[in-house]
């Protein structure tokens, strides 16, 4: 099934939010979208685009329910989705449709879209068309927004609710751009506003609202925060066990004890995020936190087959018994990803980013191939397939490994999605 932009192309006359094609290919939106994502409307190029068929509601709004009924409904929904445990975390420019589909093929049971900016999403048809695509197989799906205005958030959310299972609010982004735009983790300083965002969606949408948070330095604050979100109508909470100041995931370990405390304090499903690098981490995290599922981000970028039990050499302990070459390597995954991109087109900057992440190890061994890639201001699929062939001809292979006990984790179809 081909992907479609949910939003029909109309007046595609907006200037690109990127200043030059090269920049747009080289940078992530987090780096470059500062102005376009900034909260000041004067700085935006906007376009009003109203199309009632795009905003069709699914069924009745959920309305206000008492605590007990809300918790029951939260679990009913989660169960209807099959209680997914292995989940692709939201990643700007990186958890787009083809990448989600690749991860789903290799064991992911649900996925988040990248963070979408609610105001730009409400106003700008081109942004919607380029930044949010999905297809029938792309479920269960969380569509994530950042926001600081409940009405604007609701307007954006209404456009996606027919195509997703949760509308998620990003309450964890710690980047400079989020400080400037006043969203993400910077709303931890304004919990009344956070409450109003959650309530607005919980009362008016037909799909449940979920939130993704970071922890406060003090456990008690984190627990009060999580309880407030549940009370406001949040149906599922993902907890990234790092504080707003702990930006570097490699430097700071996520605090699973804090996640465990949140799980114990809440009655809705809770997901754990941070430090999930292979299936042993998944098992330990679920056991130690009691969480209902895990999200993984950075490791999946390098190894989208993580949830099928594959691991990079970095996570194979020397002398450990039972590890075998999984007969899959990162170049195979990249080729599958590229085929998915041909089927489900996305901006080239996203593809470029995945090429660097998936082939990072190869590039360290063959830096001239990376230089050739960087020299291309415009990419083509032909160039990228040729590049993979060149790497293979150079005789390098970076295998992914399987532990005996993980071989059965997920049945990976032999033919694959990429055909
Ligand atoms: C490239 C990249 C983009 C990200 N974008 C988002 C985002 O759009 N929304 C969000 O809530 N978190 C975002 N994150 C944070 C991840 O979802 C996750 O919380 C964080 O990386 C910790 O998980 P990990 O230890 O598995 O990497 C991003 C992370 C990365 C690496």
TrEMBL record:
PROSITE patterns associated with the record: UPF0034
Residue ranges, annotated region (Disordered): 33-59
Sequence ranges assigned to domain DUS-like FMN-binding in this UniProt record: 88-376
Enzyme Commission number(s) of this protein: 1.3.1.88
GO MF entries: flavin adenine dinucleotide binding; tRNA dihydrouridine synthase activity
InterPro entries named among the record's database cross-references: Aldolase_TIM (IPR013785), DUS-like_FMN-bd (IPR035587), tRNA_hU_synthase_CS (IPR018517)
Record has NADP as a keyword: yes
Biased composition (Polar residues): 33-46
UniProt keyword annotation of Repeat present: no
UniProt keyword list: Flavoprotein, FMN, NAD, NADP, Oxidoreductase, tRNA processing
Class in the EC hierarchy, top level: oxidoreductase
Catalytic activity of the protein: 5,6-dihydrouridine(17) in tRNA + NAD(+) = uridine(17) in tRNA + NADH + H(+); 5,6-dihydrouridine(16) in tRNA + NADP(+) = uridine(16) in tRNA + NADPH + H(+); 5,6-dihydrouridine(16) in tRNA + NAD(+) = uridine(16) in tRNA + NADH + H(+); 5,6-dihydrouridine(17) in tRNA + NADP(+) = uridine(17) in tRNA + NADPH + H(+)
Cofactor: FMN
Record-stated family: Belongs to the Dus family. Dus1 subfamily.
Protein name, entry field: tRNA-dihydrouridine(16/17) synthase [NAD(P)(+)]
Organism: Populus euphratica
Source lineage: Eukaryota, Viridiplantae, Streptophyta, Embryophyta, Tracheophyta
């Amino acid at each position: 099934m081909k992907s479609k932009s949910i939003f029909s192309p109309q007046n595609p006359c907006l200037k690109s939010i990127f200043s030059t094609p090269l920049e747009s290919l080289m940078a992530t939106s987090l780096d470059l979208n500062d102005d376009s994502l900034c909260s000041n409307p004067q700085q935006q190029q906007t376009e009003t685009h109203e199309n009632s068929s795009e905003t069709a509601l699914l069924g009745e709004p959920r309305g206000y329910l008492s605590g007990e009924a809300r918790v029951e409904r939260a679990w009913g929904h989660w169960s209807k989705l099959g209680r997914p445990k292995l989940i692709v975390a939201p990643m700007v420019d990186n958890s787009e449709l083809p990448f989600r589909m690749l991860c789903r093929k290799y064991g992911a049971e649900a996925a988040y879209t990248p963070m979408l900016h609610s105001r730009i999403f409400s106003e700008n048809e081109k942004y919607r068309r380029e930044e949010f695509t999905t297809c029938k197989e792309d479920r269960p799906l969380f569509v994530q927004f950042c926001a600081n205005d409940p009405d604007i958030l609701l307007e954006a959310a209404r456009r996606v609710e027919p195509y997703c299972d949760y509308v998620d609010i990003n309450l964890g982004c710690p980047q400079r751009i989020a400080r400037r735009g006043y969203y993400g983790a910077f709303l931890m300083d304004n919990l009344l506003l956070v409450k109003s965002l959650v309530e607005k969606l919980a009362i008016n949408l037909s799909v449940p609202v979920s939130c993704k948070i970071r922890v406060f330095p003090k456990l008690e604050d984190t627990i009060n925060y999580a309880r407030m979100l549940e009370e406001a109508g949040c149906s599922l909470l993902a907890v990234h066990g790092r504080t707003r100041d702990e930006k570097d995931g490699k430097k700071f370990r996520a605090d699973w004890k804090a996640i465990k405390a949140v799980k114990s304090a809440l009655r809705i499903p809770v997901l754990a995020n941070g430090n999930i690098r292979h299936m042993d981490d998944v098992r330990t995290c679920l056991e130690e936190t009691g969480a209902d599922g895990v999200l993984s981000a950075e490791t999946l970028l390098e190894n989208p087959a993580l949830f099928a039990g594959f691991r990079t050499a970095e996570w194979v302990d020397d002398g450990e018994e039972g590890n075998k070459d999984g007969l899959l390597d990162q170049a195979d995954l990249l080729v599958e990803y590229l085929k998915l991109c041909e089927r489900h087109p996305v901006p080239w900057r996203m593809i470029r980013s995945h090429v660097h992440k998936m082939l990072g190890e190869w590039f360290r061994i063959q830096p001239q191939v990376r230089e050739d890639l960087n020299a291309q201001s415009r990419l083509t699929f032909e160039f990228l397939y040729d590049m993979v062939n060149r790497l293979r001809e150079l005789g390098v292979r970076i295998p992914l490994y399987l532990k005996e006990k993980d071989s059965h984790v997920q049945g990976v179809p032999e033919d694959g999605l990429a055909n």
